[in-house]
Amino acid sequence: MYYTKLKTLILASTFSLVGSLAAQPTIIAPSDTIFAALDTLNALHSGEISIHWDVVNELDLEMTLMCTRSFIDTVSPYNYPYVQSLPESPVEGAYEKFCWGPLCYNYGTDASSTNASLLVNLQSGATDTTFIAYYYPHDVLGTTTHEYCFHPVGDTTAGSCHQITYVITATSAIENEQENLDFSSIATVYPNPLEGTGWLEYNLRIGDIGNVVFRDLAGKEIMRESGLVLSGKIAIDSDKFPQGLCFCTLEIDGIPVRTERLVVIR
Question: Which end of the chain offers a freer environment for a tag, N or C, measured as fewer CB atoms within 10 Å?
Fold first, then answer.
């Protein structure tokens, strides 16, 4: 398995969905963005990225949960519905799979089984450690975001969801420069949550020309700032964005190198 550099901050994420809060578990995720390089993945780790989350029942009632995966944004090509790649008929595109409870599900599976024997039962105060998400870039560069929801059978609104974003670059040299001040990057939008006018700072290496693309939760492009050089700020007007979670991605030579999130409120 391949574990990328993760942010040290532990995020306890309970997303507020429509429904009864009393049934929502807590998701403990070490990171919500993972950076990886194809040359490192393919040379040492068989092209696999894996992440692990804990799902915790902090309430005074038992929970019985399944897991559902959704695509928020994907690279192109993406192998879905999944088709097995054979030497005589290779299939292009990134793909994924996940484990939950007693099973690891096949590539491209949207949800875990609803069979009672395969659900995860969490007593009050218990933690389940079986969830693992896998991502296989399969030589495709770019940014992909998956969302996993843990919920009772037939009621996604009574569960909790969390997202993971994979940013895949070509070489480890790019990956290793993520913390170098000379590496082209963007900062977190501030204020965040955003209401009214906010700002996004960028710092680009000499010679780099960047684009910053803003997208909504469905991946639709909302705003683009092109031809950026050196350093500066981009003004963001919340009135131009839909309410909720959005993404801003820095691209260099058409390759996404950094993705940040912002939440727009009214």
Answer: C
Position 182 scores a pLDDT of 54
In terms of domains, do 151 and 185 share one? Answer: no
Averaged pLDDT, 48-68 = 92
Contact 22, 58 (CB under 8 A): no
> What residue numbers bound the domain in which 146 lies?
11-172
Q: In whole angstroms, what is the distance from residue 233 CA to residue 20 CA?
A: 41
DSSP 39: H
Q: What are the backbone dihedrals phi and psi of residue 242, each rounded to the nearest 5 degrees, phi first?
A: -70, 155
Using CA atoms, how far residue 184 sits from 215, 229, 243, 250, 256, in Å, is 20, 10, 29, 9, 11
Chain centroid to Cα 18, Å, comes to: 22
What is the rounded CA–CA span in Å between residue 186 and residue 199?
11
How is the beta sheet containing 231-237 ordered, strand by strand?
Answer: 185-186, 197-203, 231-237
- Please give the residue that has the higher pLDDT: either 179 or 240: 240
CA atoms of 115 and 153, how far apart (whole Å)? 9
Cα(103)–Cα(21) distance, rounded to whole angstroms?
27
Which tokens go with 178? Answer: 């993520």
Q: Is residue 100 part of a domain?
A: yes
Q: Among residues 256, 247, 251, which one has the least CA distance to residue 72?
A: 247
For residues 253 and 76, give the distance between their C-alpha atoms in angstroms, rounded to a whole number: 16
Q: Ranked by mean pLDDT, which of 102-106, 207-211, 229-233 comes out on top?
A: 102-106
Examine the domain organization and report whether 23 and 149 are in the same domain. Answer: yes
Claim to verify: residue 207 and residue 117 sit in the same structural domain: no
Q: Which DSSP category does 237 fall into? A: E
CATH number at residue 232: 2.60.40.1930
pLDDT of residue 116: 95
